[in-house]
Amino acid sequence: MAESASTLAAEPMNVNISIDSHRSEVHDYSRGIAGSLDRILQGIANVIAARKAAGLDFPIVIKAVVHRLNFRDLPKMVGWIQEIGASAINFQPVDWWSPETYDELWIDAPEDLADLRAVRDELIGMKRAGAPIMNSELLLQAWDRHFLSLPAPDEYRPYRVGIKNYFIRPDGDVGVCWYYKPTGNVRTANAREIWYGAEATERRKETAACDSLCLFTCLSQKPLVDTVKMGLVPIRQSEATREHP
User: Fold this and answer.
1) Please, are residues 35 and 43 in contact by the beta-carbon 8 Å criterion?
2) Taking the model in full, what pTM does it have?
């Protein structure tokens, strides 16, 4: 509880927590930590109790990585995250970081892709019915393209990460996307110099021309209206939970 209190002292706008499945055998295996899900659920309960004691009402967002071991259970997760007291869920398809990722987690078999499309369509239907799913329909529709490694269609471009992102890494490097070189370092330049510098200008050109289909929740392209809707989902769910605990 002490950790929860110190987190709440910062008065966060929201808290994001990674959970890949409501089934411990799937979540714990994909995360590589036995007992992980049970500890996370206890942590969420602690945060909820501390939030109530502090009189705060920020959303708790569950972020689930979509992969071969869990994708068929995702519709069940939407209801489950509300049962544990979370406000909304935000899905992100797994990326190909290592051979193990591809061997165990990638979704590319024809029968799996067919099931993935069915799950995606079910989630879109749930979202339209008011389920607290933060992903836009545009990004949900792209799941099969992602696992087929297809380029981004025109409606997903140009990427605007160069004009909206300012990631500060542990070593001080600043970037707009981790697939591109840094735009500067906070140890040697101030924020204005980095933002308006030559490197930042070049990164904006490079990222705007990128044709990769990016579905990372912190990088993916979203129209303004979808960005607004995405931000309202956990807020509305928190209000509904407060009115009907």
Assistant:
1) no
2) 0.79
